[in-house]
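Incident review: delayed structure delivery

Summary: a single-chain prediction request sat in the queue longer than the usual turnaround. Root cause was a stuck worker, restarted by the on-call engineer. No data loss occurred. The affected request and its eventual output are reproduced below so the record is complete for anyone auditing the incident later.

Affected input:
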Amino acid sequence: LTAWAAARAGIKIGCGPGELHVATKFAPVPWRPNAESVVEACRASAERLGVEQIPLYQIHFPDLIQPLKAFGLERRKDEEYWEGLARCYEMGLAANVGVCNYGPTYVARVHAFLAARGIPLASNQINYSLMYRKSVEATLAKCAELSVPVISYFPLANGLLSGRYDADNLPKFPKSLTMKKYVVGGADGFPDGGYTPLLRELQRIAAARGMSVPQVSINYVVSKGAIPIPGARNAEMAAANMGAMGWRLSEAEVGALEAAADAIGFEFSSGGFRLE
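Output delivered after worker restart:
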């Protein structure tokens, strides 16, 4: 699908200037047993993309899926997967290699593993936004210490920080099942009004800046030194997202946003990943 879309747009996928730099992932699932599984998956991804070298190849998450753990049987294959990642880099199948959903302990381990082979860890992609910062502080600090760039998925907190939702405009079903508590609160320990005080602060700063709420939310991530990857359903949304670039929130604005986020007393869900 990515190769088809790039072809339709007349854009070449590759690692050079003016080319589309695509990132793809290896999912460490139980039926992928060793380093060669990573290499085989990378080679297959390259073939599907129509390239000889993938710009960024990532491990999707640590080897968390252990179906026999309840019976006392567990075999974590993280280092075997890192070996496969290293081979992809050394074989030229991947120009850069990274990880996703790694916490401080695992970031340090994979960084050391790759560094021993002279391979840089290009990135760690994590859930990071104005509404999910406290839970990732240790990870951000470790990445900064090791000079590992952070890629932020959910920079708009699954749409919460886009300004689209309030008590009169809730997400549509089935998204509303998990998102309503954030928007209006009043249940499951969430305060009445949900994230409304934070939304109002975002709206205030957006109005003062002449920007949109999602542009301020995305720029917050940029201002904190991470690389946001917001979603876009169409060209108009993609163009609007680009409006978050080329400027920076002031320290006072960042502080005001963080104070408002802290005041609501909850964070946006981590999507099921506990960073180790």
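Verification: The chain has ten helices and six strands.
Action items: add queue-age alerting; document worker restart procedure.
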